[in-house]
Amino acid sequence: MAEQPKRKRSFRNIKLFFGVVFALIVVFWVSFFVTLAVRSSHPVDYLFSYVEDIFGSSEKEKKFSPPVRETKPAVKNSESEKNFAPAIEKKIPEEHPSTRHQDFAVPVNNPDVGIIARVGRVFSIEDAVRDKVRTIPNYVELKDIPTELKQAIIAVEDQRFYSHSGFDMMGIARAAVVNAESGQIEEGASTITQQLAKNLFLSSEPSFTRKAEELILAMEIEDHFSKDQIIELYLNTIYFGSNFYGIYDAAHGYFGKSPKDLTIGESTMLAGLPNAPSLYSPYVDFMLAKKRQLVVINAMTRARFLSEREAENARIEEIVLAKNF
Q: Per the CB 3.0–4.6 Å rule, which of 79, 158, 273, 310 could disulfide with 192?
């Protein structure tokens, strides 16, 4: 007699599981068609175009693919087996697209891809990430980035970075409270891993499906990469304003020095830029960048990354920019 209730419970669990899966599929397709209707005045034509993207020919890909920058031969890294960073292709410099105010970064050339390719990169996330990294010029390893810069980014963008698995409900709630109390955006709601997934693979289009894909990619990245690798990738892909992508360009562009030589004051100023890069760039508005820097220093103090004395020294440190206007 005990077997019968056990079987019933097992059957109910299976039924519940498939019910949840079915509900998720329904939500996905409803959101897809709503997005389709909103973003196009001719949704039927757009639907056919979307189907073509999935099963399209190579000729179509050639026609619509973004221009590929000319590259020099890849430089081999003698310690590539030991280090995380792969050999980086040194690319001929080219001006980045115009900047605009965004919550995080302005991804460079992240075109929409078909569903098959999108599903494929979820199941081969390591290869997908490394392929993207190979296109980053002047990649900087974490050992050449000041600890204070890493801590500053974590303090202001994702305080629970080391304790979540890519998605942080507590972080969202905390950011909402902090931002409401201050009357301005002091903390971001997305995790560093979510921002990384968006910067590497996704467009900036605000939609339910893109956010869902961002969460899935973030959790896969967390499963396959260490926290130090994730923060290293983030610092090499984030947009710092004034056409500076990645920490190498930002350190040289703003302060005329290598990332490893950044001071605490300079590190905290850079850490404040990704929240709104075109707004907080010191070349756009130095006083606003300085105000944002103070927010970062306060966040580091609350997180106990800086003592009160170190924080005060960072506040009064003279910031000298590489360019004077």
A: 158
